[in-house]
Design a protein that fits this description.
InterPro entries: NAD(P)-bd_dom_sf (IPR036291), ODC_Mu_crystall (IPR003462), ODC_N (IPR023401). One of its GO terms (cellular component) is cytoplasm. This is Ornithine cyclodeaminase. Pfam families: OCD_Mu_crystall. GO terms for molecular function: oxidoreductase activity. The protein is α/β, with parallel strands linked by helices. The chain folds into 2 domains: 127 residues, ornithine cyclodeaminase, domain 1 (2-Layer Sandwich), CATH 3.30.1780.10; 180 residues, Rossmann fold. Helices cover 36% and strands 23% of the residues. It is built from 11 helices and 15 strands. Strands 1, 2, 3, 4, 5, 6, 7 and 15 form an 8-stranded mixed beta sheet that branches. A 7-stranded parallel beta sheet has the order 10-9-8-11-12-14-13, with helices on both faces. Helix 3 packs across helix 11. The longest helix has 19 residues.
Length: 326
Amino acid sequence: MAIILTHSDVAGLIDRAAVHTAVEQAHIDLSTGAAANPAPAMLPIDSGTVLPMAASARRCRASAVKMLSDMPFNRESGGPAQRSTILLMSADTGECEAVIDGRLITAIRTAAASAVATAHLARASSTVLGLIGAGTLAVEHTRAIARVRPLEKVAVWSRSAATVDRFRTAVADLDLEVAVADSPRHVVSTADIVCTLTPSREPIVEGAWFRAGMHLNVVGAPPRADHREVDGAGMAAARLVVDSRPTALAKSGDVVLAIGEGHLAADDIATELGDVIVDPARGRQRDEDITLFDSVGIGLQDLVTARLLVDAALERGVGTRVELAG
């Protein structure tokens, strides 16, 4: 029997603190060889692309694939630019354990990965969070990073004043000062920790703006080698950490374009997040270091989150059970 979990099922089951712990362990497992996460292929379709994001993890006794449809033209009709569904498979029997809507999982595990990176790379004294973009990812990042650093203030920029207003309402319970920035440069000049959360094609942040000691989570650009949020000089100016080296070299425009321009070499993409967790010397070494986590997003993060959700659903009797082989 397989279980189907809808978006509303996921919303009722998901535990953000548990996802943080699971994502952190997943990156350790990837670094030590207890999990596998190859770079995803890109499957072209008429109106977009599809990425099958596959992973396996011994700890979860499962494999998974998230089918991510990147459909930018959906915005013209008011629909989401990305849709995704996760298939979780048992490593013991090979049967399908679950089919799960991926929308909320993607946002929460992405923010969890940024929070894990922040916990291991940002200065412990960081109190000001900067957000370039104010949508759902901004809300989730604020909640996730507030759990790992003593935040007092959030500086947020968006092209849409209405989006900033919705962000302010969504994080009102966190008792943080929310300041509206007039430009991405203003955010970078203000914050100890900066999260870039836009689907940008051209750089929206310049390395010339970086300040000693800051940490950046570069998150928003879609998994396409021609999209990026940070210019090549910025990528080269920071101590760079990626979620997965094969994925970054294939799908991170921030990385690929910086290499193409000569700011980086492929050998510079050498440190994964799991490496830093296992060996902190591979991350921040001095307070004045600039650290940057380039997050494309990987299927392993989806797998460990799906495992948590399926276990919780079975315990609570949530979801729809179906006999796929019947």
